[in-house]
Amino acid sequence: MKKGVPLFITFISGFILIVALFIPHEPFGSLQERFNDWYIIVSGFTLILGIDSLLAYHYRKIKRKEKEAPYSFALLLTFIITLLWGIYSGIKHGNPFAPTSTFLRYFYTYVFVPLQATMFSLLAFFIASAAYRAFRARGLNATLLLISAGIVMLGRVPKGEDFSPYFIAVTFILIAIVCILEALPRISIYERVLFFGLAIISLILIFPIGIFLKTKLPLLSDWIMNVPQLGAKRGLFIGISLGAIAMALRIILGIERTYLK
Amino acid sequence: MKEFFEKISKIDRRIIYLLVFISITIPLLIKKGFEFEALPEVKNAYEFIEKLPTGSRVLISIDYDAASMPELQPLLEVMLVHLFKKDLKVIMMGHWPLGLPLGQIALEKIAKEMKKEYGRDYVFLGYRPGIAAVMLNMGKEIRMVFDVDYKGTPIDSLPLMKNVHNYNDIALLIGFEAGAVGDYWVQFAQARYGQKIILTSTAVVAPDLYPYFQAKQIEGLIGGLRGAADYENLLKRRGFAYSGMTAQTIIHVIILIFIIIGNIGFIALRRIK
Amino acid sequence: MIKIILFLFLYIPPLPPSNIKANDYPNDAGGKIEIKWELSPSDSIIDNYIIFRQEEIEGKWSLPETLEILPRGTNYFLDSNCKNKVKYRYFIRAIKGEIWSDSEFSNVAVAHAEWFHKKRTSVLILLIIILAFLLYFVRRAKKEELFIRKITGLDAIDEAVGRSTELGRPLLFILGLGTIAEIPTIAGLSILKRVSKKAGEYEVDIIVPCYDPVVFVAAQETVKEGFIEAGRPDLYKEGNVFFLSYDQFGYAAGCDGIMVRERPGAIFLQGYFYAESLILAETGNSIGAIQISGTTAVTQLPFFIAATDYTLIGEEMYAASAYLTRDPLSLATIKGEDYVKALLIIIVIAGLILETIAFLTKNSLFHFLKNFFEVI
Fold first, then answer.
1. Which residue spans traverse the membrane (chain A) (predicted)?
2. Residue B160 forms part of a structural domain
3. What ipTM does the predicted assembly reach?
């Protein structure tokens, strides 16, 4: 009974909404919006649950005088100040975000916005370290990823194509060096000729590829973004959508019950 | 030799962070930029707005917050300048309640600069919860969602809103997106009601929105700081986004240099093993 | 001569639009009629069109009611304020200055609600096919074990929990920014159940900071159930599952703080993520934790692949609960999904061939497959 009733509600709601997708006639046509409205109202109340949990968690830390208790105290203090200040501005100006309210002018503009922007700007540093660590030529797939990342990174910024010949020169010189180092210990004449030949070809290709990229890099970058990237993404979207359908069917039919108590 | 290659394949992340910081800060302080051509999707957006008849109503949706402000706020301001220059009427609303004050700040600032009058040239409607419900109801009658503006003034008393009932009365919708709301705009406003849409977004979200531009479901797409810089260039009003382009180019080059150094170390160590 | 031309220009009325056709707007809940017409031959010189409507009341037509003023060049209007089963007719006035001319009346149109959305027929057919595959594989699942390929990220869960136990560090499970209504969050919860059970078996703590209050409630129960299933309900600590913040970057900052202070041995990032994904993944990497991520957010997948040790890509996350529990019914849905995907691939290839032929032969008949799948 404890699980039976919620499962029955889940099944009926899911079934009705699927049917409603195909029937524009009332009351089915507006069911999706109505369910959305109900969800918004209910979820508004659940925020109270969350705030209670947050305050209780930090209050427990202060009460037990744990190591990080001062930070918990700072959180509770900030919570109270924000709440009271927002209520005060709301009462005085009708809306805490009214142009003349001190809440907007001081708290939001000089505390909230800079904090949020700072957290977001951490991404610039993290992407640099993640790219440095992840883009290694471990195998064929990783090398293709590395090359396309390099092309797109330079192709999407102004004047990036002007730098591309230098990167090409460095890359092909390195390839030539690796080929020569591979050739030297080889005993077989054919293998030596092959690797030396590859080294020479790498050095020769610097100029034409450098010129090609200098003129066509943005187009190549756009092509990578608009064709293979988009194709792969669409394939992923289709897979994810089908996965979501399978998961939704499992939930509606009661096979998946993890969300229930 | 082996230690050298080990060091370069595992450079301390703090060194990387320091170099990133220097290479972003110096160009922004020097404020030197270079010429570049606008992307086609940005040009499309610009030209669509250019072709709008005087007096057309444009709905702007603020769907970003303070975290995305550095990317989208300069673009919002330059687009508002464009819209007001062409005597288009601006209606602003949003789905991210914490970002709406940013939209309001930009709107008030540019409206003051361009000497526009509230209620006649621009209106700020505010926020209503619901995203999909809001979009669907706006397609039937805007007053079902926004019967008053952000100050509580009935919108029927605002001259701009007198004949505005639904998407049929709105020539263009511009969404400023930092999340997934852009998909909802296309799904509900464009697909169901045929609303013309231009989407602007952070650089991370832009690839998600390219399919819509390719499928001609949106009139233009302005992604990231590059899109903002392109728009500033087209409008001949170079600002923060334009000067940020130099920093962006340099940082991309620096990251590529690090990647090459890391690969040299990686390949050398593999050969030694 | 000029005065005559000016007289003609100013005082001769413009030609009206013609061929006004009014029809019930298809595939809706009623209340809408769409009106189409051919532009006035004088369209380039007129100021506006005004569209008028008359309603039939007790057998008589009402006085014309102004609906909308439309700019020149418009040849379509959607009247969204009609009553169902009431007769309407329309006419359009072309105006130039103070002079105008009216078109003929349109045909009589009646708005009504549809019982079936014809444009979604293809969706219904696909849904029936999905259900058919599902039923077939459910029957097969009862007779034999269905094969699913190896998913490395899920196999690594045991390794990750074991590593944390050896180090004497807790686990950290991050459910992302989704709400309970979002399927990635439910998929994340099913993985959390499995991880909690393992944590109970290995006697290691699990910390679950939550973004959404409803998800927090569900997560609490999930973790408790996991420990109960492991036979160690005494190890469950209520304070380890808590609501952290409803703000994206506040949540990311809080999780980063937990990572740096608690130094978990393994971090699970399973759910729907936005821009904070790389902040979380890189911080986790900097403390040396083993990281298993999974998301359906396509924009965040590259960051997870670059920064974490194992990544469940898109539908692999949805398959997690079936993969981990080996429940026959769940496996049947995965198999059914895969076969539908194969069918979609065939349809896409067929569509590609047909559209190419249509382009080369300029014959619009070959667009039938594309038209069939066009859904509103």
1. 7-23, 38-57, 69-88, 108-132, 139-157, 163-181, 193-215, 235-253
2. yes
3. 0.85
